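FAQ: What does the model actually see?

It sees only this:
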Amino acid sequence: MILSWRKKRAARRAAKKQNLEVTSNMELTIPSHFRCPISLELMKDPVTLSTGITYDRDSIEKWIEAGNSICPVTNQVLRSFEPVPNHTLRMMIQDWCVEKRSYGIERIPTPRIPISSYEVSEILSGIQTAKDQQDAERCREMVLKIKELAKDSERNKRCISANGTGGVLAAAFKTFSKVPFEQNVALLEEILSALITISPLDGEAKSYLGSDSSLHCMVWFLKNGNLSGRRNSVLALIEIVSSDQQKIDELLEIGGAIEALVKLIKEPISPSTTKASLLLMYHIVSNPPSSANSKVIARLTEMELVKILLEMLVDCEKSICEKALGVLDEVCSYDEGMEKAYGNALTVPVLVKKLLRISDLATQFSVSILWKLCKNDKSEGGDVLVEALQLGAFQKLLLLLQVGSTDGTKEKTTELMKLMNVYRDRAECTDSLDFKNLKRSY
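And it is asked to produce this:
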């Protein structure tokens, strides 16, 4: 009995193997009406234009997005740019794939139908109505729906953004953020998340988010929100202040804003949040020098921002390193910042270590900070210059001149080398390990 079963199984395997060998030697021809006229490949999501010609959705959308307004096959002007799904042809293609599965053809999945401008308008109308009626729960349902659609595909995101969604969502955020906004926290979190999903935001959206109530709400999220709320608040604030420097002053007038931002840098919750927090801080400290900005720098140094940045720079990834150095460079433009840098044992070792190690931008910032510290060093023995020399800064600066840099960095490098040259005979010491990863052409 067992022997008979084994023989049958062996026979089936042999037959299957023989069948595969036969089919592998046969050439598979894709029916011409299953091919996209543009890509000439098997269509995965066939759609029909107003001219009656069917294309694969991805191919025809790229054609239209390139600025073309005619049908590629007929050259007729398109009356509508909204392609209609060809369900009949798609099911025929799926059946054909199943039939030819022995050739290694996989059945194409049923595609999700992209959202249309009309559907977006309907959802936005629902959000506006819920906003006017102060119906937070209904508004939240609509916001969740549009956020999920935006995440579904890049095409959906483009369609949603192009139909004024940012302005509608930001207007709802402004309305529901008015005191007391604590009862609308769940809704406000979802709106902020949806806004970041469809970013970059347009001018109308930024205007609503830059309102007094919206700014106060986002600062509240910075201080009390969950991880997602804090991250999204920082990202939204970057969009606002990057296009309107006046909003920085308004932001800083809100109690606890600067403290919450420093805390996000000091106690990171995720790499993306740290990068966003450093970028927002850079916008704040890079304001044109003024008495008001000097007070901001003084507050930041009191909160040990210089120490936090230096400790972060000891071991961090490239993007965070560049942003942290950028902030430190701006802070060291002020006496309060330089004083804190002089008093920290990590300052010179970290800056010299970053030269020619991370990126061109990190090197530029490191040179700029060293230049400021060395130029303004009031110690009798040139403590900063001597320490930099002992750590091999002169050789790195010399190499930087040889490999090339921006004009501003080149001038600072030359001046730094002149300042260091005075102390070279008694202080210079090179660590050859600093150059082990550098490549030179001979």
